């Protein structure tokens, strides 16, 4: 486990939208070896909701638009994916 001071010192330099974007990229890269569009689609939908529901006081408004785009692309990836 990482000490909380290390995480806090990292997050002080960035806003919550940038931290969520980093986590989204890491989870997407982590899911790539599974070669499943359904997993990537579900990941996109979940992070789309997270980006959309994040208060604008904590993140810039363009992260809300990223959330809307992920909510459009995610279900398409999920439906077109193989089982």
Automatic annotation (TrEMBL):
List residues of the DUF8006 domain: 1-82
**Keywords from the UniProt entry:** Membrane, Transmembrane, Transmembrane helix
The record ties this protein, via InterPro entries, to:
DUF8006
Q: Which residues cross the membrane?
A: 12-32, 39-57, 63-81
The source's domain of life comes to Archaea
Task: Tell me the protein's name.
Answer: DUF8006 domain-containing protein
Which organism is this entry from? Answer: Haloferax marinum
């Amino acid at each position: 486990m990482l000490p909380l001071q290390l995480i806090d010192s990292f997050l002080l330099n960035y806003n919550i939208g940038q931290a969520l974007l980093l986590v989204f990229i890491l989870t997407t890269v982590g899911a790539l070896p599974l070669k499943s569009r359904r997993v990537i689609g579900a990941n996109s939908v979940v992070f789309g909701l997270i980006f959309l529901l994040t208060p604008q006081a904590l993140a810039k408004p363009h992260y809300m638009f990223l959330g809307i785009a992920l909510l459009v692309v995610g279900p398409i990836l999920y439906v077109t994916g193989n089982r």
